[in-house]
Structure formats: structure tokens, C-alpha cells
Amino acid sequence: MKSILWFTVGVAAGFVVAHQVNQTKQGRDFFSSVDAKARAFGQAIAEGYHERDAELRGDAAPAN
After folding, report:
1. Sorting pLDDT into bands at 50, 70 and 90, what band is 1?
2. What is the pLDDT of residue 11?
3. What is the sign of the dihedral through the CA atoms of 3, 9, 10 and 15?
4. What distance, in Å, lies between the first and last C-alpha atoms of the chain?
5. Sign, CA torsion 55/56/59/62
6. Contact, 30 vs 21, CB < 8 A?
7. Whole-number Å distance between alpha carbons of 49 and 56
8. Closest-CA residue to 40 (of 48, 28, 30, 51)
9. Which domain of life, per UniProt (predicted)?
10. Is residue 18 within 8 Å of residue 12, measured between CB atoms?
11. Cα gap 58→28, rounded to integer Å
């Protein structure tokens, strides 16, 4: 139970710090950069998944 409390305190402190950092121009630039990289990574994962899914579905189709 004590570890859950410390985890919650850590998460809350992280949000507070992130909010304070986001108040500055450099902080906004930093978070924009992180957001853009995360979106690009997510897009690459989704594209790879869809390509592989299409490959597998193409291989699983019955041959005529």
C-alpha cells in the first residue's frame, strides 16, 4: 500500500513539474518536439502493422 502511495505522489509531482516547464517558451518547444517524435513513432508503428497485416492476409488468401 505504501508503494502505491509513493507512486501516486511521484506521478502527481511529475504532472506539476511538467506543467511548470510548459509555462516557458523552451518548455513548450521541448514538449512540442517530444509530441512530434511520439506521433511520428506511432505512425511508423501503425504503418508497419498495416503493411505486415496486408502481407499476411495476402499470403493467407487461397490460390486460384
Report:
1. confident
2. 97
3. positive
4. 61
5. negative
6. yes
7. 10
8. 48
9. Bacteria
10. no
11. 44
